[in-house]
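Researcher: I'm preparing a figure for a lab meeting and need a structural model of a single chain. I don't have an experimental structure, so a prediction will have to do for now. The sequence is pasted below. Please return the structure as tokens so I can convert it later.
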Amino acid sequence: MPKLNRPEKAAAALNLLFEKKSSPKGIQKDPVEFLHDYTDPKDIEIAGLISAALAYGRVDLFKKITRQILEMAEGHLFDYLSNFSPKQERSRFKGLYYRFSTEEDLFAFIHLISRTIKTYGSIGDCFLSHYQETDEDIGPALTAFVQSLTASLDAPVSPGLRYLLPSPNTGSACKRFNLFLRWMIRPKDGIDFGLWKTIPPAKLIMPLDTHIIRIAQYLRLTTRKSPDWKMAKEITVFLKRCDPEDPLKYDFALCHLGISGACPIELNEEKCQVCLIQNICFREKKCKPRDPSEVAQKG
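Model: Understood. Here is the structure written out token by token.
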């Protein structure tokens, strides 16, 4: 089994990538884009939860359904869901669906968010009520948060609704909810929002999407094969050795290496040559590694 990379070597390359490529200009290709349409923290929380839950599959398709749902509130998500009337709003979901989730699932999801807001005051207040400082990471709070969302459900959770509400207690990597938590907790930097300041960024777990899985394996940030909660934790533990206080600061830049095509699935030696982290990459390639400082000047 391949050994993990050396954190002391990886840190230099990853910090360089973070400095050069963590730019708000990239949010147009990211679901976090929707959150930047709002200024009220309570609206941002709701937009984040909805956008993250639907952020799977083709970007153009999940952005379309996300936009359709967000536009129901006419720019005022918190007010809309605080006064949400299931009988009046049910018809607006007619014909809406997205991959595994039917119109009934999407309606139920929004209804559950509305009930949570009415019970706790906000999404943030709900999540923070489940967080304990003694928890090793965000996992237990996320599990309790998902349980609280479904607690008021009047019927069994359907498969399509369950897909929108993953939980660590099933072993799921919870990529989309970990992404949501990154947006809420990491310091405000033009990408993330830093709204929930009582939770340290060090408690976050890496959002494990297809790009992160592939690139983390190239970089040997993990030795695991299955994309589950254990892999997400192993990658996070590795990144904590590069930055103990803010391990997820690397997520956006690493993920967008895949999204932008800078690190394609099909080997491209020309792109490998100019990659800022090529000197810590174990991907099979024939190209000769270049000096990182030379690459940085062009990055």
